[in-house]
Amino acid sequence: MNKRLGIAILILIVTLSAALAACGSGKNENAANGGSPGPSTGGGNGGGTSGSEPSEDAEPFTVSLRHIQIGEAQKFRKAILDDVVKKTEEEVPGLKFELDGVEDQVNRFTKLPAEMAAGNPPKIFDLFGGAGDALKYAKAGRLLDVTPIIEELGIADKFLNLSQFTLDGNVYGLPIGGSTEGFFYNMPLFEKYNIKVPTTLEELEAAAETLKQNGITPFAMGSKGAWVPLMLVNTLIGRYAGPDAIDGFPAGTHAWNSPEVTAAFAKYEEWVKKGYFTKGELGLEYADMLNQFVTGKAGMMFDGSWRSSVFRDPEQAGELTGKVGFFPMPPVPGGKGDQTFVNGNYSNGYGFSADLNERERTAVKAFIKNMYSEEMQLRGLLEDGVLPSMKLSEDALGKVEDPLVKQIMEVMRQAGGAFSHFDSTVPSEVYKESEAQIQKLIAGQATAEQVTEALQKVQQEANAKS
Q1: How many CB atoms sit inside 10 A of residue 399's CB?
Q2: How far apart are the first and last CA of the chain?
Q3: Residue percentage of the chain with pLDDT more than 70
Q4: Three-state secondary structure string covering 262-283
Q5: Residue boundaries of the structural domains of the chain
Q6: Does domain 179-344+417-465 bear CATH number 3.40.190.10?
Q7: What is the pTM of this model?
Q8: Element (H or E) spanning 182, and its range?
Q9: Which of 109, 105, 113, 127 shows the shortest CA–CA distance to 174?
Q10: Closest CA to 388 of 85, 174, 105, 172
Q11: CATH number of 27-178+346-414
Q12: Helices 374-384/75-91 angle, 10° precision
């Protein structure tokens, strides 16, 4: 399955026409916007959901719900989840959700894999899309096929991209939002040192040198979690090797040890040696990276668009509130393919256990109806800066006022397309090797050439087994 996100993906968020906005009117549109989905057809979906007050004599039952919305930076998204939970409990007689908040990486790489192996995942849980997660669990029969549910609710055609949750034409999870990755920058520092917003690699490196010469770290970085530096590496691969390279690794049409991919790692290695990243980055967490940036110790930070909500919250951004800009990775000399493509993903979402009784299915359908509505998608964009995973009306998009979010959306509008992150396309053993190798590179224990040779070896072994 082609996972490339270059066709009608994040860019559609800002280019939808009135015709798209009108798509799915009537009962289906009402259901998608959080209203009643209409009479239920029953069957495998577990029946309809009631908008009336639960009867007092309804037998209580619980549904476990694993989420990753923990910590101050996730408070806006957690508020949305809490409202969906409350609304769903009010609609389904006897229902009580048991919420379990777990850190993202712990859930994805430790708890959920163990639960899937044992066959006892939560009933609803945060799920990452792609070959190493959702599609692997779907093949093992652990995930609920939600295709009949989203069709009955009338929202199947409202998602911008479901490829990372789709296996053999069936949908096994739903992305909660979209994202792109690029550079956030400290506007007062750029103004102070007369730094222009970079539009070329030369200008980006000139900006880094200016900041460094003035005692400021060019790029905030926390590499204790290897996925953080790999965000930047992934985009460098998209620039040097072209957007098609990401899908080419598992397909066997592009090699990790090709000159272009090696050049991407070599550029990161060069920046490490020049001292462009936070000193001691291997001992710093993702949250530490943000702290470096908001306190003015670093002038730029490569991160996901989901971070935008932090910079309008004085409790988190402090004096930098409202003073942050965003720009994409500039083109690189000799880079392959369309250099206007950006990183874009629809990977983070919710999955549902295949092991559900009828009442649990009813709860799941009500949860999907309430979470995946225009109201909640718009709240995610306005309150949390998370790009929607569903088509929004022009009226809804017109409510966006945050200058930073508008800037990010304009970057998407001007992009020729988008490529995904390789962690959603390659097998899990390849991604784990990439984490080990990038930390070796940062520590000076491996060169770019050694890193890509090691990755190609693991990729070939994985491809041979598939």
Answers
A1: 10
A2: 14
A3: 88
A4: HHHHHHHHHHHHCCCECCCHHH
A5: 27-178+346-414, 179-344+417-465
A6: yes
A7: 0.80
A8: strand 177-186
A9: 127
A10: 174
A11: 3.40.190.10
A12: 160
